[in-house]
Amino acid sequence: AHAEVAVLMDMRGNVLHEWRKSFSDVIEGPPPMGEGKARRWWRRSWLLENGDIIALNTGMGVMRLDKNSNVVWVNPLYAHHDLAFRDDGGYITLTRKVHVLPRIYPTRPVIEDMVSYLDARGEVERSFSILEAFERSPFMGAVSEVITKGVKRDLLHTNSIVILDGKLADRHPAFANGNLLLSFHALDAIGILDPKTETMVWLKKGSFVKQHDPKLLPNGNLLLFDNMGIRNHSRILELDPIEGGIV
After folding, report:
1. Collapsed DSSP state (helix, strand, coil) of residue 51
2. pTM higher than the cut 0.85
């Protein structure tokens, strides 16, 4: 997140390889975000087994580069924060729309987070609204609290996406295979979305605040970065994902 570059280094900090490519050199027109700062850095990158990488630049898009930084494909969509790998070779990424939703605020634009399914070539297969997934669920009250405060246009600030493998489904049906574990920075909550029904099916709050990067561990617990949850300090928590208790 310091430049449009990914760096591979050894444990001594020696740089072994770099991938570099500016989104502005490979896409036409202004960025979907409409903000120049989106051109300055990759938010995330992921190394593939053949030496290719997937690079995500918030507000500019997602692209795949080969080991020599040649473009394999690029999609200039308003992606942000995170991307997950599907078993069929495709991807799921977080995307956004910035527009007026009169049912939320009559005139002020808001950021509407989306889930977008991409095929192996980076083309969008389907997209759906996470806000609408909340509206179909019993958990819209958590979003309404943010709306009532009237201080943020970024209603959810979804910052993580994980495809669940179904290993915890025997403890709770929300953890079914293919469901999506999401983190909502603005809600101080993590949740699970069923992409088949496009509905939020589980939401969990706790002692964590403005959390990032929930991941399920092999032991069945959940690892979470709690950004400011205790005395204005950050910490790492291992939680029982069903009961929510700190392990």
Report:
1. coil
2. yes
